[in-house]
Design goal:
The protein has 154 residues and is of the alpha+beta class. Helix content is 19%, strand content 32%. Strand 7 and strand 8 form a beta hairpin.
Length: 154
């Protein structure tokens, strides 16, 4: 199956993290290694293997500022992600689900998040079990959408 046919695609929706260095500094300070480069950090809003017509949902062009309080990373398949909650992100996610998109993760559960590291281990999660989670402000850029790449690996 093709990744894209006109405006019908398997959508991957994200927002770039504009101040990722703050998050990298926090994670490195706790001993987490191989953290994603700050310029590649983003919030994953939707990861859908089901094609939908993206022309019916306009992309949000506004930036978002949000403040996290003691946010603790969680496992996403083999990755480590920081959960992100914001009404605009939740609204976007729900709009895509309403037109037939799915959230296709191995465990069937999806939460918008910033991936901190790929190929995370239990040891990485242990780092956060005895320390305070991330508290700070994050700046997110405008929504971006692209076709989901089959078999993508970092």
């Amino acid at each position: 199956m093709s990744d894209q046919i006109g405006t019908i695609i398997r959508p991957y929706v994200s927002r770039p993290l504009l101040n990722g260095q703050e998050l990298v500094n926090w994670a490195n300070g706790l001993g987490l290694e191989d953290v994603i480069a700050p310029e590649k950090m983003h919030v994953t809003v939707l990861y859908s293997k089901t094609p939908v017509d993206i022309s019916v949902i306009p992309l949000a062009r506004d930036a978002i500022s949000l403040r996290l309080h003691n946010a603790r990373p969680f496992r996403i398949s083999s990755a480590l992600g920081l959960p992100i909650e914001h009404p605009k992100i939740d609204e976007t996610h729900k709009r895509y689900l309403a037109i037939g998109a799915t959230h296709d993760y191995a465990n069937g559960v999806f939460r918008p998040h910033i991936t901190l590291r790929y190929d995370a281990s239990e040891k990485d999660l242990d780092v956060f079990s005895t320390t305070r989670g991330f508290t700070g402000s994050l700046e997110l850029g405008a929504e971006q959408i692209e076709p989901l790449r089959s078999g993508w690996r970092p």
